[in-house]
Design a protein that fits this description.
Rossmann fold; binds S-adenosyl-L-homocysteine; alpha/beta
Amino acid sequence: MNTRRLEGIGMTSLRTRERLVNRLIEQGIQRIDVLETMRTTPRHLFIDEALSHRAYEDVALPIGFNQTISQPYIVARMTETILNAAPEEARILEIGTGCGYQTAILAQHVKHVYSIERIRPLLEKTRSRLLDLKIRNVSLHCGDGNKGWPRHAPFDCIITTAAASEVPQALLDQLQEGGVLVIPVGGREFQELKLYRKEKDKISDETLESVRFVPLLGGVEN
Ligand code: SAH
C-alpha cells in the first residue's frame, strides 16, 4: 500500500488523528499503548472512501450490509479492558469482524486474533484489507459466532462487537481459566457493556457502561 494512502492527507492526516486521541484521553482512555495504536491505525481505510473525511470523528459509521464500524472510543475502551486482563502472548477470539477495525487494533497488541463474521462478502472484503495492511496474526472465519470457535479454544479473552440478548454459553465455555469475556448485552434500545471473568470455574460479572451495538444474530449470510 502506498505511504500517502496509509498516512492520509487533510481530514485523514496524522494531525486530525491527534485530535481524536486527545478526545479519547479526555474520555478516560489511559493506556499509552492503546492510544498509540489508535493514533497510527488508518481508520479511513476501513470505511468507504466517500466517508473518509469523517473517519477520525468519534462516531460509528455505516460500512454497508446494514452494519457499522464501531465508535473509536468504544474500540479503545474494549481494547483497554481486554489488555488489562490478558496475559503476554494472548490468544483472543473476536465475534463480529465487520470491517476489521477492532481486529486490527487488537492484533497489534496480542499474539493472535481469531475473528468470526456471519456475513461472507463483508468478511472477504475485510480479509483483503487486513492483507493490504500487512496484519498477519489474524485468522478469519465465516460462521455463527454464538458457537465460538471450538477448534482453537480455549481463549485467553473473548470480545463480542455485536449485542447479545443473552450471553452465549459456548463463549463462556471456550474461555481459559482466568480469562475474560467483554460483551454488550441487551436489546435494541438499551445495552450494557459487560465483563465476565472465569475463575476456578465460576463466572463473575461486572457492568462497564451503557453502549449501543448492532445485534448479535444467528446463522450465516452468503
Ligand atoms: N468490530 C467491528 C464492528 C462490527 S459491527 C468494528 O471494528 O468496527 C458487528 C458485526 O457483527 C457485524 O459485521 C455483524 O454482521 C456481525 N455479527 C452479528 N452477529 C454475528 C454472529 N452471530 N456471528 C458473527 N458475526 C456476527
